[in-house]
Amino acid sequence: MAAVRREPTDNDRSFxxxxxxxxxxxxxNGSRTEQAGWDVFRVLPPEAESVSTANQQFLETTIKxxxxxxxxxxxxxxxxxxxxxKGSILFMTSQLRPDxxxxxxxxxxxxxxxxxxxVPEEERVAWAWCIFFAYIVPEMGTFMRSVxxxxxxxxxxxxxxxxxxxxxxxxxHTVGLALLMFAVLPDLDVVKGAMLTNCMxxxxxxxxxxxxxxxxxxxxxxxxxxxxxxxxxxxxxxVWPLVEGDxxxxxxxxxxxxxxxxxxxxxxxxxxQSPIAFMKALGRVKERMKRTRYFTYxxxxxxxxxxxxxxxxxxxxxxxxxxxxxxxMFKTGFAEHKxxxxxxxxxxxxxxxxxxxxxxxxETTEIDAAYNTAFYVLLIQICAAYICYIFGKFACKIxxxxxxxxxxxxxxxxxSISLLIAACxxxxxxxxxxxNSIPDYLFxxxxxxxxxxxxxxxxxxxxxxxxxxxxxxxxxxxxxPKCERLASTEKLFVLPMYDSLLIDQSMGMNRRxxxxxxxxxxxxxxxxxxxxxxxxxxxxxxxxxxGSTPGKxxxxxxxxxxIYACATMWHETKEEMMEMLKSIMRLxxxxxxxxVAQKYxxxxxxxxxxxxxxxxxxxxxxxxxxxxxxxxxxRFVKLLxxxxxxxxxxxxxxxIRLRPPKKLPAPYGGQLVWxxxxxxxxxxxxxxxxxxxHRKRWSQVMYMYYLLGHRLMELPISVDRxxxxxxxxxLLTLDGDIDFQPLAxxxxxxxxxxNRNLGAACGRIHPVxxxxxxxxxxxxxxxxxxxxxxxxxMIGCVLCSxxxxxxxxxxxxxxxxxxxxxxxRSDEARHYVQYDQGExxxxxxxxxxxGYRVEYxxxxxxxxxxxxxxxxxxxxxxxxxxxxxxxxxxxLGDYKKTIKVNDNISLPYISYQMMLMGGTILGxxxxxxxxxxxxxxxxxxxxxxSFTYNIIPILFFMLICFTTKSEVQLFVAQILSTAYALIxxxxxxxxxxxxxxxxxxxxxxxxxxxxxxxxxxxxFLHPQEFWxxxxxxIYLLSIPSMYLLLILYSxxxxxxxxxxxxxxxxxxxxxxxxxxKKEAEEAKKKVKQxxxxxxxxxxxxxxxxxxxxxxxxxxxLFKIILCQHPASSSERQQLTRIAESLDxxxxxxxxxxxxxxxxxxxxxxxxxxxxxxxSHHGAIPEDKAExxxxxxxxxxxxxxxxxxxxxxxxxxxxxxxxxxxxxxxEVDFMTKAEESFWKDLIAKYLYxxxxxxxxxxxxxxxxxxLRNKSVFAFFMFNALFVLIVFLLxxxxxxxxxxxPLGVKTNVTFNEETKEVHVSKEYLQLEPIGxxxxxxxxxxxxxxxxxxxxxxxxxxxxxxxxxxxxxxCNKKVDDTSTDALIDRHAIEIVRNMQKLRGLDNDPDxxxxxxDPDRISHxxxxxxxxxxxxxxxxxxxxxxxxxxxxxxMSAEGNAETVGTPVLxxxxxxxxxxxxxxxxxxxxxxxxxERRKSQMKTLGASKTPSEYGVTGAQxxxxxxxxxxVASGVSLKDVFEPPSGSVNHAYEEEPSSLNNNSSVRLSNxxxxxxxxxxxxxxxxxxxxxx
Length: 1582
Known about the structure:
Layout: H1 56-93, E1 101-104, E2 114-118, H2 121-152, H3 160-184, H4 190-196, H5 202-210, H6 219-244, H7 254-263, H8 277-318, H9 323-328, H10 330-333, E3 338-345, E4 359-368, H11 373-397, H12 401-429, H13 449-453, H14 459-474, H15 489-492, H16 503-509, H17 524-529, H18 539-543, E5 561-569, H19 574-600, E6 609-617, E7 621-623, E8 631-633, H20 635-652, E9 662-666, E10 669-675, E11 681-687, H21 696-713, H22 719-727, E12 729-735, E13 739-740, H23 742-754, E14 758-768, H24 772-795, E15 805-809, H25 810-813, H26 819-822, H27 829-836, H28 839-849, E16 853-865, H29 870-893, H30 895-901, H31 907-921, H32 923-939, H33 943-963, H34 966-998, H35 1003-1021, H36 1032-1037, H37 1039-1052, H38 1070-1089, H39 1094-1097, E17 1106-1113, E18 1119-1126, H40 1130-1156, H41 1232-1246, H42 1253-1290, E19 1297-1310, E20 1315-1325, H43 1327-1360, H44 1377-1383, H45 1385-1392, H46 1419-1427, H47 1436-1444, H48 1470-1496, H49 1510-1514, H50 1547-1550, H51 1555-1563, H52 1574-1581
Helix pairs in contact: 1-11, 1-12, 2-8, 2-11, 3-7, 3-8, 4-12, 5-6, 6-7, 6-14, 12-16, 19-20, 19-45, 21-41, 24-43, 27-29, 28-29, 29-31, 29-37, 32-33, 32-34, 32-37, 32-42, 33-34, 33-37, 34-37, 35-43, 44-48, 45-47
């Protein structure tokens, strides 16, 4: 049946591979569209963008501006806080030297005199304690973080040797710091001390040099520089002891303190790649520490604080300070005490600053000490160090590390020294310069005046410059970050916290240097020598070997991201299908650009992914109009087929059509397989509900078992490789109406890569539609995501990742008690509520109970159609409300086990969910009491009257819900909702008046202001969604309807388990329709006979079969018949016989046509409609359509005509494949393995549930019983709550709590007694009301704070994903033209692969220009040109290659339509960029020609390329890459990449240009339907 396709030509620029056929070839059954001369008028492809792309350009520009501001702001904050932290520490150490004397400002004690001051002992004690406190703050943070992670998450104990190594290193580091702070720095002036802190890198420098691998490029040159840097560091250990050792003995401790301090950063510089055994061993310890760190540092943090304290006491004791005084003077040091000032007289030859020669006069003055100064400096130091660390980490997370982290960290010491020199110079010149800023008796230990004057010209500056440069070299890794976006703290830093005493050194040497980065193109040759696999080869290439054994080692390609888009569809409209298909087309285009960029531009894309789409169509078949025994695809499937070309036209902005889909019969119905323009596959699985269970949950079971079970677990590879693949395989669950951008998916993948324990991630869902119900949902969705989902994300886990747009990790779904448990059939009443009504929430509940995390990304936007009508909305929420409560109750009921298993769920989070659940259960009662109180305030009536007015409509609505059908319930709910909306408007006015009377301090006013303020702030923090706050007034008016009526409607209809939305009338056979008609007539007769006045008729005649000689009626209310007699039925019988004869003739003609039709398929057995394997007795049918029964197999096949019917086999020639709407598609078949898989899956888990009447009755009874129990419990809880609160309200005068705010003061004057009486009137709250106010206030505060933190994380995520492409964030080697092309390769390919504008013939020509040029349009010429134009049919890579191989730097680079470079403003030299691209193009051409010559000369055997036997004959002249026969070199050997069997057809199956195909055709000439081989089917699985 498949059409024969013309073979494409082979030349240098098409190369005859599977994607090179020119667009104007007949690759899709011919591409020329013949049009009559009168039918040349056209509709241009629309330029309107979808909702998801509406403001994309403005948003991108805004984000880039924000990122520039963040660049500068983060740089300033990190530098400023680093300088302040460094200066604060030096200020503290400057106060510790006992013999320190500084000039004192004489402004307040005598302007004509000179004074000096020394710091007393109690002051020095206070400053020593401040240094200790500054040190222990981050250590306490480490302790608390370690305890939290070990308590709430998993931990592992370290081996004894590892613990000892860490113990030794941390002890050395702590002792070294204590020596530095209390012995060395007090004896040095602050400038020398600041310089010395650049000499703390000795051990890291040595370890870094010893860890250099032989595989490093320019290793020897780097080792030489390492040695120079180490030598420079060593000079820092001896310079100051040699210069000042005779005067200050403490400086001789510099070598010991600096060396011991540097030991603390050993771990970051140890490597397993070192050629030295000792370093390899330390590298292994380092690897193990990643798993045991937090357990180790529970003890290390406490030990370090203890060691630092003891070392501090020991050093102070050795320096002559009394240890007992260190404790006894603690209180006085931070309390009021005196400072003694000494008057001096300068020597005749000395200056004011030369205090050594000053002569004391003996006069002293005491002043009060500014005892809070030490505390303030400590607070400043702690805050500055923490801010420096936090913003530095933020810079690393959002990928601005070079400019905003490395640069300020390296500038900290130079800026600090500059400021210290300036400050000391000013203070030496004028002791009163800082009189009003710093206490006059406190200042830095200033260097001598000559040192300041000769700093630049002297040797000190140059020596220090060597130390600074050596530190910069040793910490060079912070300039070249390699981490992913939003990397965790553990991936960014070795130790989770920082060292506040040496903040800049800590941030430089604690930043990890071994994080893996992107593989560069120029590194690929080195990777070949190392025996590494291809970086981006596909899994099918890795696993499909020609007889090779499965690989046992993990390959790099196993970590490639694989995304399977799995959409569930049912009865979507064309507009809804269009949005989903356009989103798929955009993903297809994005994946194609990334694949082609790697293949032809030789770049490695870290965000590359493989992509495939699966659409699962529920109830896809209906009874044929021509034959009641046969099924055809329904109108929704046909609508999908019609819509897909239009969706492609929208996305690619040119009129195109896709190849008709392949048709494959399947055990569950059938498949339609499209190849999209980007060469990815889209498979529509058409489900026949008579063969497999329908409903969304069972569709999810289908794709989970198919993709993760059959396609992954049955691969012939090792278990380790499957483990890695499962971790990097993601299921993108979609609804049939979703609209999103590729960036939204990329953001979710980023979250998955960041956290391996993440099982699912969802984005921000925006409702789309029109009308008041949609406006209400806009506000509801906004608040739900802004506050509730953000709170769940921050303090625990998101409880529901909606199936309309979520990403699930394959490994998480495959875990125990998840996928297998999800197949559980609903056998109990509660199962129908929990499992089938809210399947997405149940799946997430299963993931949470297995320990996985579920997250929410506010930056990942998706748009879905929401109910626009009141009834549809209520039906949807009727499903959602009970299922949500059931799943949360399930989680809360097993909370102890969940807390134990899941690291992200804690007891406070469970408490928060319990509070929300309590609020939900008591919500109707709360709203009722609110209405009662509002009626009292608004209408000035008493409480009992208000209570009566409100209880009557609620009881009436409950009665309606119990006794009437759903349509009546919804009608009454709509009327009551309208009435309540009007009442709410009056209530709002009354409440406003009441608030004005009670004042702004009343609880109601405070709560209302807080709630409104939180909503407004949330809206301002979401500027793109700000207008979602506007429908808040509709939300306010709908509160009684949504939180009272809707809850009642949902609970009372708990026994209804139908879907309720998107339902359509099911098509029935003629016999079923006749049977229904007969049953209706019989029922009508029975009713009439049993009516009240039936005794008058005596049973003679009834219904429409009676006539009368005289009859009359009144408006159809009644009819009087006189002289009654039976109606004549001859005319009716004749018409019936005529209709039956016509039907018989029609069926005979059809049978004759089938006999003579040469295209009929020959089968071996007749189609049989199975209701399941064996006798599967099930539960209640999932909807009324399930009760429709098909014809029994015993019916006469020929319908009495005597004509034999063609026998059919549903897996060979099903009737639906002959549908004229599908007949153009090629026919294909599943492999035996896949067919067997589907049969087994259906038999075990997905067989249709038979309509067992007894089981239906039992389940229906159980559902009603569950409903009654739930309603009773729900009613009693709310009734008790309302009763208690209402009675307390009535007796508020006796039992109340006085509200302290909003007090009214009444002042009265008694003229008789001349007395003034002042009385205060308090607002009174009943205790329950007060508890409830604080309850809701607490929830509001939690959600608001969580929203702020989550918003910060979201902005970080957006900024991390945004590239500025400016020189401020580029590495040195990124400024070349080749580097720019590497950076913009994806964008270049996107422009070059556009189908629009190919051959300089765009669809949207001048006819779509502005209206002012109407007179200049060449309408007739354009129509004639279009009528002779070949319709664009093809793939994106073909368009790319046509432009890529046709471009020239000398000529016009845009001769083939679309600009090659969309980077006019980014590329500094467009001609150079084109030349660079041309060089890459010529390299590809040369390699392919070389490969062709080698192939012709048989210089390489086929087995060298992994091709054996017939494959070698069938393969074109470039390659077929399979299994382990492909080396990395072959990635860029002809044709510059490996075949992607997942999404590229085999060359032999596409081009068919070999003798093998001819011989196969001859051998199978008697087979009309092409059945692919088993091996080719395996290749298509992945």
